[in-house]
Amino acid sequence: MTNELHGRKVAILATDGVERVELEEPLGALLGAGAQAELLSLHTGEINARQMDIDPAGTFTVDKKVADARVGDYDALLLPGGTMNPDQLRTDRDAVAFVREFVETGKPVATICHGPWTLAEAGVLHGRRLTSWPSIRTDLRNAGAEVVDEEVVIDRQLISSRGPQDLPAFCKAIVERFANAPQPA
Protein backbone atom coordinates (compact mmCIF):
# COMPACT_ATOMS: atom_id res chain seq x y z
CA MET A 1 0.00 0.00 0.00
CA THR A 2 1.21 3.46 -0.86
CA ASN A 3 0.10 6.79 0.50
CA GLU A 4 0.07 8.87 -2.70
CA LEU A 5 -3.59 9.69 -2.13
CA HIS A 6 -3.55 10.03 1.66
CA GLY A 7 -5.95 12.81 2.60
CA ARG A 8 -7.75 12.71 -0.76
CA LYS A 9 -11.46 11.96 -0.92
CA VAL A 10 -12.89 10.53 -4.12
CA ALA A 11 -16.56 10.46 -5.12
CA ILE A 12 -17.63 7.47 -7.19
CA LEU A 13 -20.94 8.09 -8.95
CA ALA A 14 -22.76 4.95 -10.03
CA THR A 15 -26.13 3.28 -9.91
CA ASP A 16 -27.78 -0.03 -10.76
CA GLY A 17 -26.22 -1.67 -13.80
CA VAL A 18 -22.66 -0.52 -13.10
CA GLU A 19 -20.04 -2.79 -14.64
CA ARG A 20 -18.60 -4.43 -11.52
CA VAL A 21 -14.98 -4.57 -12.62
CA GLU A 22 -15.03 -0.89 -13.69
CA LEU A 23 -16.01 0.14 -10.17
CA GLU A 24 -14.15 -2.49 -8.17
CA GLU A 25 -10.69 -2.29 -9.76
CA PRO A 26 -10.36 1.53 -9.72
CA LEU A 27 -11.76 1.58 -6.17
CA GLY A 28 -9.13 -0.94 -5.11
CA ALA A 29 -6.37 1.13 -6.74
CA LEU A 30 -7.58 4.29 -5.01
CA LEU A 31 -7.90 2.67 -1.60
CA GLY A 32 -4.53 0.98 -2.07
CA ALA A 33 -2.99 4.41 -2.65
CA GLY A 34 -4.50 5.74 0.57
CA ALA A 35 -7.59 7.57 -0.72
CA GLN A 36 -10.95 7.69 0.99
CA ALA A 37 -13.85 6.91 -1.34
CA GLU A 38 -17.60 7.36 -1.16
CA LEU A 39 -20.09 5.68 -3.45
CA LEU A 40 -22.77 8.16 -4.49
CA SER A 41 -25.92 6.97 -6.21
CA LEU A 42 -29.49 7.84 -7.11
CA HIS A 43 -30.85 5.96 -4.10
CA THR A 44 -29.69 4.68 -0.74
CA GLY A 45 -29.07 1.05 0.15
CA GLU A 46 -27.26 -1.00 -2.45
CA ILE A 47 -26.75 -0.85 -6.19
CA ASN A 48 -26.76 -3.94 -8.38
CA ALA A 49 -23.64 -4.55 -10.43
CA ARG A 50 -23.43 -6.41 -13.73
CA GLN A 51 -20.80 -8.36 -15.60
CA MET A 52 -20.62 -7.64 -19.33
CA ASP A 53 -23.94 -5.75 -18.92
CA ILE A 54 -25.85 -9.03 -18.71
CA ASP A 55 -24.99 -11.20 -15.74
CA PRO A 56 -25.77 -10.16 -12.16
CA ALA A 57 -22.48 -9.47 -10.34
CA GLY A 58 -23.34 -8.66 -6.74
CA THR A 59 -23.99 -5.37 -5.05
CA PHE A 60 -22.19 -2.33 -3.66
CA THR A 61 -23.33 -0.39 -0.60
CA VAL A 62 -24.20 3.24 -1.29
CA ASP A 63 -22.65 5.79 1.05
CA LYS A 64 -24.81 8.75 0.08
CA LYS A 65 -27.42 9.90 -2.42
CA VAL A 66 -25.92 12.21 -5.04
CA ALA A 67 -28.75 14.65 -4.27
CA ASP A 68 -27.27 15.00 -0.76
CA ALA A 69 -23.60 15.25 -1.83
CA ARG A 70 -21.56 18.44 -2.10
CA VAL A 71 -18.89 18.77 -4.79
CA GLY A 72 -16.71 20.69 -2.33
CA ASP A 73 -16.38 17.60 -0.14
CA TYR A 74 -14.40 15.67 -2.79
CA ASP A 75 -11.01 15.98 -4.47
CA ALA A 76 -11.77 13.79 -7.51
CA LEU A 77 -14.64 12.01 -9.26
CA LEU A 78 -14.83 8.54 -10.82
CA LEU A 79 -17.55 7.65 -13.34
CA PRO A 80 -17.49 3.90 -14.06
CA GLY A 81 -19.39 2.39 -16.97
CA GLY A 82 -21.72 -0.40 -17.82
CA THR A 83 -24.49 0.48 -20.25
CA MET A 84 -27.38 0.79 -17.79
CA ASN A 85 -25.49 2.76 -15.13
CA PRO A 86 -24.71 5.98 -17.04
CA ASP A 87 -27.92 5.70 -19.04
CA GLN A 88 -29.80 6.12 -15.75
CA LEU A 89 -27.44 8.76 -14.36
CA ARG A 90 -27.81 10.98 -17.41
CA THR A 91 -31.56 11.17 -16.88
CA ASP A 92 -31.26 12.25 -13.25
CA ARG A 93 -31.14 16.02 -12.70
CA ASP A 94 -29.12 15.77 -9.47
CA ALA A 95 -26.50 13.44 -10.97
CA VAL A 96 -26.06 15.61 -14.07
CA ALA A 97 -25.80 18.79 -11.99
CA PHE A 98 -23.22 17.17 -9.69
CA VAL A 99 -21.09 16.08 -12.65
CA ARG A 100 -21.35 19.49 -14.36
CA GLU A 101 -20.38 21.34 -11.19
CA PHE A 102 -17.52 18.91 -10.55
CA VAL A 103 -16.03 19.42 -14.01
CA GLU A 104 -16.38 23.18 -13.68
CA THR A 105 -14.19 23.14 -10.54
CA GLY A 106 -11.22 21.83 -12.52
CA LYS A 107 -10.82 18.87 -10.15
CA PRO A 108 -9.89 15.56 -11.81
CA VAL A 109 -12.64 13.42 -13.30
CA ALA A 110 -11.99 9.85 -14.47
CA THR A 111 -14.38 7.89 -16.66
CA ILE A 112 -14.35 4.57 -18.44
CA CYS A 113 -16.45 2.69 -20.99
CA HIS A 114 -20.00 4.17 -21.13
CA GLY A 115 -19.26 6.56 -18.24
CA PRO A 116 -18.78 9.61 -20.52
CA TRP A 117 -22.50 9.57 -21.37
CA THR A 118 -23.12 11.49 -18.16
CA LEU A 119 -20.44 14.03 -19.13
CA ALA A 120 -22.17 14.50 -22.49
CA GLU A 121 -25.50 15.10 -20.77
CA ALA A 122 -23.83 17.60 -18.44
CA GLY A 123 -22.70 19.60 -21.49
CA VAL A 124 -19.01 19.61 -20.53
CA LEU A 125 -17.39 17.85 -23.48
CA HIS A 126 -17.20 20.61 -26.09
CA GLY A 127 -13.58 20.89 -27.22
CA ARG A 128 -12.43 18.03 -24.99
CA ARG A 129 -10.44 14.99 -26.14
CA LEU A 130 -11.39 11.58 -24.73
CA THR A 131 -12.03 7.92 -25.42
CA SER A 132 -14.88 5.56 -24.57
CA TRP A 133 -16.60 2.33 -25.45
CA PRO A 134 -17.05 2.34 -29.25
CA SER A 135 -20.87 2.39 -29.24
CA ILE A 136 -21.14 5.84 -27.59
CA ARG A 137 -18.48 7.65 -29.61
CA THR A 138 -21.00 9.25 -31.96
CA ASP A 139 -22.89 10.63 -28.95
CA LEU A 140 -19.66 12.11 -27.58
CA ARG A 141 -18.78 13.67 -30.95
CA ASN A 142 -22.29 15.13 -31.12
CA ALA A 143 -21.59 16.65 -27.69
CA GLY A 144 -18.55 18.42 -29.15
CA ALA A 145 -15.75 16.07 -28.10
CA GLU A 146 -12.81 14.83 -30.10
CA VAL A 147 -13.01 11.08 -29.64
CA VAL A 148 -9.97 8.85 -30.14
CA ASP A 149 -9.33 5.13 -29.82
CA GLU A 150 -6.56 4.95 -27.20
CA GLU A 151 -6.00 3.03 -23.97
CA VAL A 152 -5.96 6.14 -21.76
CA VAL A 153 -6.58 9.74 -22.78
CA ILE A 154 -5.79 12.68 -20.52
CA ASP A 155 -7.16 16.12 -21.40
CA ARG A 156 -6.64 18.66 -18.65
CA GLN A 157 -8.43 17.17 -15.63
CA LEU A 158 -10.34 14.53 -17.64
CA ILE A 159 -8.97 10.96 -17.69
CA SER A 160 -10.75 8.41 -19.89
CA SER A 161 -10.39 4.80 -21.04
CA ARG A 162 -12.27 2.53 -23.45
CA GLY A 163 -13.32 -0.39 -21.26
CA PRO A 164 -12.31 -3.29 -19.01
CA GLN A 165 -9.33 -4.23 -21.17
CA ASP A 166 -7.76 -0.85 -20.27
CA LEU A 167 -8.20 -1.11 -16.51
CA PRO A 168 -4.52 -1.62 -15.58
CA ALA A 169 -3.47 1.56 -17.44
CA PHE A 170 -6.60 3.43 -16.31
CA CYS A 171 -6.03 2.62 -12.63
CA LYS A 172 -2.39 3.69 -12.85
CA ALA A 173 -3.36 6.95 -14.58
CA ILE A 174 -6.08 7.89 -12.09
CA VAL A 175 -3.86 7.34 -9.08
CA GLU A 176 -1.11 9.47 -10.66
CA ARG A 177 -3.46 12.25 -11.80
CA PHE A 178 -5.47 12.34 -8.59
CA ALA A 179 -2.22 12.48 -6.56
CA ASN A 180 -0.86 15.38 -8.63
CA ALA A 181 -4.03 17.46 -8.60
CA PRO A 182 -3.86 20.60 -6.46
CA GLN A 183 -5.42 20.09 -3.06
CA PRO A 184 -7.90 22.69 -1.88
CA ALA A 185 -6.68 25.08 0.79
TrEMBL record:
UniProt KW keywords? Glutamine amidotransferase
The protein's matches in Gene3D superfamilies, at most eight in alphabetical order, are given as: 3.40.50.880
CDD domains xrefs: GATase1_PfpI_like
Q: Which PROSITE patterns match?
A: PEPTIDASE_C56_PFPI
Residue span(s) of domain DJ-1/PfpI: 8-176
Q: Which NCBIfam families match?
A: PfpI
**Family designation:** Belongs to the peptidase C56 family.
The protein in question is named Type 1 glutamine amidotransferase
Please report the organism this UniProt entry assigns to the protein. Answer: Streptomyces silvae
